[in-house]
Amino acid sequence: MTNKSLFDFIPEDQQNSYERAVALCLDRDENVLWWYRNLVGEDSFGIQGYRRHRLRPDFVAQGRISSRPHHLVWVIESKGKHLKGNEDSEYKRDVARLLRRPGTP
């Protein structure tokens, strides 16, 4: 599964079924150049939102469009349907909207 993962080993106890599904999707997508599972912790990649604590997305990936690499990096937070609309999910969606490049959906 980890052909495009920057790291070979992802401990099972550090990902849930949604995250495993996202990892498989990223690994199989022809437009993904690389991805990695962002580990939990203060030393991991984070985004400062408008609340005190940094957001730590589940995945970071780089892709290409039309067979050309872009300086576009995706941060991906996987959420199950049971978390749709909850306060944490909406906060993360709101921060993503603020960071999105103008003109993108």
Task: Please provide a written account of the structure.
- By secondary structure, the chain is α+β, with helices and mostly antiparallel strands.
- The chain has helices at 17-28, 87-99, and strands at residues 32-37, 59-65, 68-76.
- Strands 1-2-3 form a 3-stranded antiparallel β-sheet, with helices on one face.
- A hairpin with a 2-residue loop joins β2 and β3 (68-76).
- The radius of gyration is 14 Å and the shape is globular.
Key features of this structure:
105 residues; alpha+beta; 2 helices; 3 strands
Per-chain topology:
Layout: H1 17-28, E1 32-37, E2 59-65, E3 68-76, H2 87-99
Antiparallel strand pairs: 1-2, 2-3
- Taking all Cα atoms into account, the compactness measure Rg is 14 Å
**SSE string, helix = H, strand = E?**
HEEEH
Please give the number of β-strands: 3
User: Which band does the percent of strand residues land in?
Assistant: 15-25%
What fraction, in percent, of the residue positions are helical? 10-25%
Structural class: alpha+beta
Q: Specify the number of helices.
A: 2
Task: Provide a quick synopsis of the model.
This protein has two helices and three strands, in the order αβββα. It is α+β, with helices and mostly antiparallel strands and 105 residues long.
